[in-house]
Amino acid sequence: ANPIPFVGDFDFNDSTSVAERWKLPLAVTQPSANLMEVYIPAFIPSAVITAPAYTDRIECVITVASCRLVTAEAMGSATVTISIPYNNVLVEAQNLSLPVPVEPGCVVITVASISYWLNDQQKDLRPAFLPSSVIDARYC
Question: Which helix (H) or strand (E) is 45 found in, with range?
């Protein structure tokens, strides 16, 4: 697979990005034909995630989607959601497996978004705290 850098750096929110808010490199790999993996190294949430005051937990949604480039036909997608308590406790490294059909001539995009949940169990809806970014884009 070949990286597509001009797509891989795309942010859906002009106010912020996942990289600005979560200062931790997320690595996307393709270990087999129909499987994408997102590796999240071990981290301490309050040390690497910039959050608004009174944040209780962070929700990160990661989606991988593939489509045939020539026909623009969607091939498939997979989504995983992780909930992270916002504190000083070490979160162990994780390798998230997302089964997605991949074949020669397709584009595979991996997107991450972050939501902040406050102590009153309300989601912070301010644009500066709703990052969503492409974290990997590749042509297979």
Answer: helix 45-48
pLDDT for res 63: 98
Amino acid 46 reads S
Closest CA to 21 of 86, 81, 99: 86
What's the rounded Cα separation, in Å, for the pair 34 and 38?
14
C-alpha 32/C-alpha 63 separation (Å) is 17
For the chain, which ranges sit under pLDDT 50?
Answer: none
**pTM attached to this predicted model:** 0.92
User: Rounded to whole angstroms, how far apart are CA atoms 4 and 88?
Assistant: 36
Cα gap 80→60, rounded to integer Å: 8
Alpha-carbon distance of 112 to 96, in angstroms, equals 13
Longest dimension (CA), the chain: 48
For β-strands 27-32 and 106-118, DSSP reports them as: unpaired
Amino acid 118: pLDDT: 96
- Inter-residue contact 38 to 26 (CB < 8 Å): yes
Detail the DSSP E strand segments found in the chain.
2-3, 27-32, 35-40, 55-68, 74-85, 94-99, 106-118, 132-139
